[in-house]
Amino acid sequence: MKHLFLIAFRNLLSHGRRNLLLGAAIAGATALLVFLGCLSSGVKFTVLESATAVATGHLNVGGFYKVTAGQSAALVTDYKKIRGIVEKTLPDLDFVAPRGRGWARLVSDEGSMQVGVAGVDMANEPRLPKVLKMREGKLEDLGKPGNVLIFASQAKKLKVKTGDNMVFSVLTARGVNNTVDVRVAGVAEDMGLMTSWNTFLPQETLNRLDQTNESVTGALLVYIKDMKRIPRDIDLLRKALAENGYTVMDRSAKAFWLKLQDINREDWTGQKLDLTDWEDEVSYIMWTLTAIDGLSFLLTTVLLVIISVGIMNSLWIAIRERTREIGALRAIGMRRRGVMMMFVLEAFCLGAMSTAAGAVAGCLLALGLNALNLPVPQGAQFFTMSATLRFAFEPARIIGGAVIITVCCTLIALIPSFRAARMRPVMALSHVG
Amino acid sequence: MRTKIGCVPFFFAVWMVFPGSLAAAELGKADMVEILKGIDVRVKSSGDYKALVYIEQREKDKPDVAREAIVYRRDADQKLMILFTKPKTEAGKGYLRVDRNLWYYDPNVGKWERRTDRERIAGTDSRRQDFDQSDLAGEYDPAYVAEDKLGNFGVWHLKLTGKPDKDLAYPIVEFWVDQKTGNDLKRQDFALSGRLMRTSYSPKWQKLYSQSKKADLWYRQEIRIFDEIDKSNSTLVLIQSVDLQPLPENIFTKAWLETKSR
After folding, report:
1. Would you call A177 and B192 a contact, using CB atoms and an 8 Å cutoff?
2. Which pLDDT value is given to residue B2?
3. Which among A334, B177, B211, B222 could disulfide-bond with A338, CB atoms 3.0 to 4.6 Å apart, if both were Cys?
4. Is-contact A343 A318, C-beta < 8 A?
């Protein structure tokens, strides 16, 4: 085997220019795959990071309350009891954060915008101080009633800064217009597209705005230590809540606000709980990951087809050039399998070296762009979910991509290699050309 | 001097015949209720009602948007339909109220959505109440504020507070009612928190004889609404071509609106 590797490697070197060009094509395709993979991973991590800070826990115990059959609100009543069940049920629980949920019009002297409002109790939010980077003001001030935390893009649009006053205006679940006056406690750095429409209010202030009492929250955001356990934990919670007499809705992979219309059509009143994971709550933006992954698959497939044709062509030429050599090797006792392995290994070596080089190049390119912290135009932020271009590195994904391309290169070499192995020594030796 | 409750029928009769005659006196609660009832009765049509409506919306940093719609009403059954006809992007969209439920239809989506009865119409500052009959006397408790002047008009300034059992978009309303005609000329709507949300003016009122009612039907020909929260926003509503002829029986149905939307 060692000899076969040596022969294959020397053959590659002996046709340097041709193999260099082919190797560059393979390396280019691998670099593209790795680059797009890093971009997709970057988007995924941005979404995970901003979503789990702003809108969702690793999993959520949300729910809907209907006063009448036609009017629902995203509310969980008597949430402390449900919190107790969650804490008792989940073995790997990190912490639980009750969050109010709502939509309101936020109005400053200079403008207005429709925003999502998260009602928080800072005593229950150990994660927020770690993930939110303050541009101005203090996050701790969010603990004081009547304060609001907004993000940089919102501050820019509303033309406000820390200490300025604004008004939240809302139509409550009972259809009554209500307002609260708020003061900007601080402005946090943007964390992707989601933070362009989300704000934080103290839970007490949100209750005052929505006219709800303190036993009510929007959802319990549940953070666990091992995210791989999410499906198992959801099953455990579903069982525990049902045993405690709660009605739990069937699983639907949609954000809570996308379910409101369907729930309004349903003929029931009272409380129903809804269990979701973080991916369900951001499903409306996960298309961007699907789009990037689809694009990389399409591009890589096209490039792989072109490379495969190149490899086959290159091997056909090599076989034709080395027909007498094949005859000689067969004549001195090399078996057909050996001849086939010799050519397959040649393609394998070419593929392995090129994909390794391509993967390194792709990673270096992604690293370089990461370091540059390139701003993304507003329109493209729908794809990147971030104001700056961000790449992330998942070793399994990068190595997997390189291995797939190497395997493809090797497999495509089987056809010409098999033909070479089937040559009769006499015919091969007498070959002229 | 407060008007005595026992004299209310007399004063109301006098006010109906000579609306300006009470101008000098402070109003008692019963008088104010009668004023509100007077408005409710005047704008209520016992038969059918159809009107062409223009809604012009002005918002900061956005181009003005003008919409044309047809409003259909059958007050006896509390039915209402608003069908947008212009511009092209809005044509076919509509609201339908049946049995206290307000439905919204968008032909682009092809689905009906249940909406709150108190939401903004087409995202403007106008509300369903601006196009519908009113029940001021049933929904609000009035309080006297002052006798006032609005331009050249002598007006009663009243403060209305929503009755506890009523879910109202604006729990507090201030009203300026023309002493001579009994029509409301200005209205300020307040949120539950007490913050002023919008001010609307109804400077032009028109009347039309209704055969079914055997009396005049009054309607606001022009409503100017100013957003008091987002001060740069305003909406102008023009109500024209009011027709009190009977409407087809099947008009207040989802199917009818869908056929008109195609």
Report:
1. yes
2. 41
3. A334
4. yes
Q: Determine contact, residues A86/A93, Cβ cutoff 8 Å.
A: yes
Can you tell me the distance from the alpha carbon of B129 to that of B121, in angstroms, rounded to the nearest whole number? 10
**Do residues A217 and A119 touch, judged by C-beta distance below 8 A?**
yes
Tell me the C-alpha to C-alpha distance, in Å, between residue A153 and each of A102, A106, A109, A189, A191: 20, 14, 16, 8, 10
From A179, A261, A264, residue closest to B193, measured CB to CB: A179
Distance of alpha carbon A376 from alpha carbon A369, whole angstroms: 12
pLDDT at B17 over 60: no
A interface test, pick of B116, B120, B125, B168 with most A CB neighbours within 10 Å: B116
Tokens of B23: 């101008």
DSSP string over A100-133: EEEEEEEE-SS-EEEEEEEEE-GGG-SSHHHHPP
* pLDDT at position A363: 94
Beta partners for residue B111, in sequence order: B106
Cα–Cα distance for residue pair A140/A138, rounded to 1 Å: 5
Find the CB nearest B101 among A70, A167, A171: A70
Residues in A closer than 8 angstroms to B117, CB to CB, are 175
Rounded Cα distance between A392 and B8, Å, is: 79
B19 has pLDDT over 70: no
Distance from C-alpha of A135 to C-alpha of B24, rounded to nearest angstrom: 61
Task: Give the closest-approach CA distance of A409 to chain B in angstroms.
Answer: 48
User: Where do the DSSP E strands lie in A189-245?
Assistant: 198-202, 216-217, 219-224
| CATH class of the region B27-45+132-229 | mainly beta
Beta pairing, strands A177-188 & A147-151: parallel
Please write the tens of the pLDDT for every residue from A171-182.
888 788 999 999
> What pLDDT shows up at residue A383?
66
CB pairs A-B closer than 8 Å: 62
Least confident of A217-221, A306-310, B155-159: A306-310
Instruction: Taking residues A126-138, report their average pLDDT.
Output: 89
Enumerate the domain spans of chain B: 27-45+132-229, 48-131+245-261
Say if pTM beats, i.e. exceeds, 0.90: no
| Positive or negative torsion for Cα A116, A122, A128, A133 | positive
pLDDT at residue B216 greater than cutoff 70: yes
**How confident is the model at residue A78, as a pLDDT?**
93
First to last CA, chain B: 61
DSSP B185: E
User: Which tokens in the block code for residue A113?
Assistant: 């915008």
Q: Do A179 and B197 touch (CB under 8 A)?
A: yes
Partner residue facing B192 (CB), from A105, A107, A211: A211
ipTM: 0.79
Task: Provide the β-strand partners of residue B51.
Answer: B71
Q: Does domain B48-131+245-261 have CATH number 1.10.340.30?
A: no
Share of chain B above pLDDT 70, in %: 90
DSSP string, A148-179: EEEEHHHHHHHT--TT-EEEEEEE-TTS-EEE
Q: What is the mean pLDDT of residues A377-387?
A: 70
pLDDT value for B14: 46
Query: Measured between alpha carbons, how far is residue A291 from residues A192, A196, A250, A383 in Å?
Result: 17, 22, 28, 8
